[in-house]
């Protein structure tokens, strides 16, 4: 029963991931942590992040903005490892709650009063660094990355595919760490095997659904997800 419930949550989360290019793991994580345990869930979602996001990116390579992908990865990867280190040397519970509040505020503000201006270039670099740091500390830097990507990637297809390429690489790095720590047990590999066909269906379904969403609604949906992620962090963090 636990695995069935997790698979249902996984399918929903990864359909959202295929539509927007982010938010899959953060939505699946609380359910998985409750049903499968933290280490097993992280290992499963890292593996599936590589598979599902990689599938989406590889089948849409022409939509990848390689220049922005390089910038995102070069900054986020460095700060992600800093965040992983910080997670081992200091308590971060309060900071996680604060991060949730910030995301709720950002999501609500952009839904009630859409942004008309742009952040300066230096501020975007700071946002990108913070996205990597938060990814390393809480495995949830996607919401901040979206703030950067919304300004840099105006086309929704380019937006979701470039972000998918980012998660392919970062999840691979996490998966390597989890493998070296021995988290890929027989039970975990069984869940991964069950998730693979669901990830394929979710990717196809999400890709079809996003084509029916206008650019304006896509942007609103993105900020709704940021608001939901913030609320989720406040409740479960």
Automatic annotation (TrEMBL):
Highest taxon in the source lineage: Bacteria
Localization (cell): Cell membrane
A Gene Ontology cellular-component term: plasma membrane
Membrane topology per record: Multi-pass membrane protein
Membrane spanning stretches: 42-61, 73-102, 122-149, 161-182, 188-206, 218-236
Chief localization: membrane
Xref: InterPro entries: TM_pro_TauE-like, TSUP
Keyword Cell membrane part of the UniProt annotation: yes
Keywords carried by this UniProt record: Cell membrane, Membrane, Transmembrane, Transmembrane helix, Transport
Family: Belongs to the 4-toluene sulfonate uptake permease (TSUP) (TC 2.A.102) family.
The name this protein goes by in its record: Probable membrane transporter protein
Species of the source: Rubneribacter badeniensis
């Amino acid at each position: 029963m636990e695995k069935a419930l997790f698979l249902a949550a996984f399918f929903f989360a990864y359909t959202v991931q295929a539509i927007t290019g982010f938010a899959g793991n953060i939505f699946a994580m609380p359910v998985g942590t409750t049903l499968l345990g933290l280490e097993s869930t992280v290992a499963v979602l890292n593996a599936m992040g590589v598979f599902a996001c990689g599938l989406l990116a590889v089948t849409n390579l022409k939509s990848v903005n390689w220049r922005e992908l390089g910038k995102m990865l070069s900054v986020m990867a460095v700060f992600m490892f800093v965040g992983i280190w910080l997670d081992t040397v200091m308590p971060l519970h309060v900071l996680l709650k604060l991060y949730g509040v910030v995301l709720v505020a950002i999501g609500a503000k952009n839904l009630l009063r859409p942004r008309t201006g742009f952040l300066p270039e230096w501020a975007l670099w700071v946002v990108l660094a913070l996205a990597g740091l938060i990814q390393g500390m809480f495995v949830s830097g996607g919401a901040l990355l979206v703030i950067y990507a919304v300004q840099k990637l105006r086309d929704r297809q380019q937006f979701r595919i470039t972000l998918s390429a980012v998660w392919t690489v970062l999840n691979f790095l996490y998966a390597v760490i989890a493998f070296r720590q021995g988290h890929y047990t027989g039970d975990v590999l069984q869940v991964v095997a069950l998730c693979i066909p669901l990830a394929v269906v979710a990717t196809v379904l999400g890709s079809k659904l996003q084509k029916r969403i206008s650019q304006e609604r896509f942007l609103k949906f993105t900020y709704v997800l940021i608001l939901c992620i913030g609320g989720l962090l406040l409740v479960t963090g």
